[in-house]
Amino acid sequence: MDLLYILVGLLILILGGNWLLKAAVGFSLRLKIPKIVIGMTVVSFATSAPELIVSLKSALQGHADLALGNVIGSNVANLGLVLGVTVLLSTIHVEKSFYKTDWPIMMLSSVLLYVFLIFDGVLETYEGVILFSLLIFFLIYLLKYQKTAVVDELPEDDEELPLYKDVIYLSLGGLALWGGSELLINGAVGLAHYYEVSERIIGVTIVSIGTSIPELSASVIAVLKKEKAISLGNLIGSNMFNILAVLGLTAIITPVHVTDMGLIENDIYWMLGIAFGILPLTLFLSKMKLGKLEGLLLLGFYLFFVFQMVL
């Protein structure tokens, strides 16, 4: 039954990613704002809904390690697994403005989480308020000043849909991504419990991969349809959303107390490492683009991360 949950969940996630992409393109045309903004807001929020639900439920039930491990593991998976697979399929060219706003905010979010946790192992309520407030300020800035950070290769293929269709696609996509993720997570956690794996390991590996499947579905479908602005913006936005909104809201509702110190002593450094590593990958190796070489390096990083977790 657990295996059936996983397979059905994956199928629903693929459908949800396609519906969400249609809605994202439709809204970007209707609102006349850069697609990367839509990718970092509407798509990122919808694809990060599983992380929010899982983390809130876990923290409220006293499983803080699962909540925090889910976010840390998902952020590593987004940039290692999801971005790695995406750029293996097609090269993404990045403009200079990408480095002036999107990457620095993602890096700032990651460093803030590290600072809040490293001293006492607790994400307090006021720290959650700080994280969530940063998200609000950034979104206000994004909607006012953000220019296109990734080149749209086929703008002529864009079709503006009626508003009701955009809303339907957005609703169906978000619902399918959430429902599919729930099925996949339940199946994966059921299998993991059978082997008596710790909550931290489950959160950082099985659950985080499950909750990153929506990002993988949305990003791969986007890049195959030449909507690379949405793909890259979705991943950067999801990582920021995971920290600023998922953990921010969770901490506001109930402080997050770390019990397995491996999350602070090991896992969070992997998250910081891959977040920082995106910068030299795009600046020095391939001159402001991500291609197959970078994809292989990112996937290799992620596989090594998972390997050292399960040892």
Could you list some keywords that capture this structure?
two-stranded antiparallel sheet; globular; about 300 residues; 4 strands; two-stranded antiparallel ribbon; mainly alpha; single chain; A middle domain of Talin 1; 12 helices
Write the layout of secondary structure elements.
Layout lengths: L1 H30 L3 H13 L1 H12 L3 H26 L2 E2 L3 H4 L1 H17 L3 E2 L1 H21 L17 H32 L4 H26 L3 H26 L2 E2 L4 H24 L3 E2 L1 H19 L1
Antiparallel strand pairs: 1-4, 2-3
Helix pairs in contact: 1-2, 1-8, 1-9, 2-10, 3-4, 3-10, 4-9, 4-10, 4-11, 4-12, 6-7, 6-10, 6-11, 7-10, 8-9, 9-10, 11-12
Describe the structure.
There is one protein chain. Helices cover 80% and strands 3% of the residues. The chain has 311 residues and is mainly α. The protein has one domain: NCX, central ion-binding region (A middle domain of Talin 1, Up-down Bundle), CATH 1.20.1420.30. Strands 1-4 form a two-stranded antiparallel sheet. Strands 2-3 form a two-stranded antiparallel sheet. Helix 1 packs antiparallel against helix 8, helix 4 packs parallel to helix 11 and helix 6 packs antiparallel against helix 11. About 3% of the residues have low confidence.
Query: Strand order within the widest sheet?
Result: 1-4
The CATH topology: A middle domain of Talin 1
Task: Calculate the mean pLDDT score and round it.
Answer: 82
Number of strands: 4
How many individual helices? 12
In CATH terms, the superfamily is: NCX, central ion-binding region
By oligomeric state, this entry counts as: single chain
**Helical proportion, percent range:** over 70%
Architecture in CATH? Up-down Bundle
Number of domains: 1
Main structural class: mainly alpha
Q: Can you tell me the CATH class?
A: Mainly Alpha
